[in-house]
Amino acid sequence: MLKSLLEWDRDTFVYLNNLGIEEYDLFWTTVTNFPTWIPLFILFIVLIFKKYPKKEAVYVLLTIVAMILFVSSFTDIVKNYVARLRPNNTEEINTIIRILKSPNTYSFFSGHAASSFSITTIFVLFLRKRFKWVWLCYIWPFLFAASRIFVGVHYPVDIIVGTFVGVTSAILFHKAYARLIVPYLGLNHLE
User: Fold this and answer.
1) Phi, psi angles (nearest 5°) of residue 167
2) What is the pTM of this model?
3) 50 HSE (CA, 13 A, CB side)
């Protein structure tokens, strides 16, 4: 079964990667870079401080920073343990795919998917009752994760697992905030 999954993963990656069009290469290489999204991160922080009292906003942001550190560390541990080569470094397929980035680190699972989905999910959880449009922020992690296929550095399973890790981490840290921080601050609400 694992062999079949890995074959599907490889074949699906090759198919999706080859859907890339040269005219969109600049778009995907821009989308895949974290600095491109700094204005979105600033918006998230501004919204937290706009909709929460200052002291609570600080604790919300500290919770988010703790989650980001957890997701980043967990991603690195798993990548080094599994040690799956990235598509761009896999001799079997690297001559038949489009490669726009060439990192040398391991592939499984996608840190871009895990971090972007964790950050977006936790901000959505903290802001969903205050801004109905906050769900639109999921455009970012979907584009960010998809870019990893188009630049040639992640298989679909890497992205699916990274997404799962990110969303699950955000939910757990949001629940931890509700159980540990909210009572500490003497609040009687979840958000």
Assistant:
1) -65, -45
2) 0.89
3) 9
At residue 125, what are phi and psi to the nearest 5 degrees? Answer: -60, -40
Q: What is the mean pLDDT of residues 133-139?
A: 92
Q: For 18-37, how does the pLDDT look when each residue is reduced to its tens digit (9 = 90+)?
A: 888 888 889 999 999 989 99
Tokens for 18, please give them. Answer: 């080859």
CA torsion, ordered 34, 39, 44, 47, to nearest 10 deg = 170
List b or e across 150-166, with b for residues whose CB sees 16 or more CB atoms inside 10 angstroms. bbbbbbbbbbebbbebb
Please list, residue by residue across 13-36, b when 16 or more beta carbons sit within 10 angstroms of its beta carbon and e when fewer do. bbeebeebeeeeeeebeebbeeee
Contact 98, 152 (CB under 8 A): yes
pLDDT of 101 reads: 87
**What phi, psi does 59 have (nearest 5°)?**
-65, -35
Query: What whole-number percentage of the chain has pLDDT above 70?
Result: 97
**Given 3-state DSSP classes, what are the helix, strand and coil percentages for the chain, each rounded to the nearest 5?**
75, 0, 25
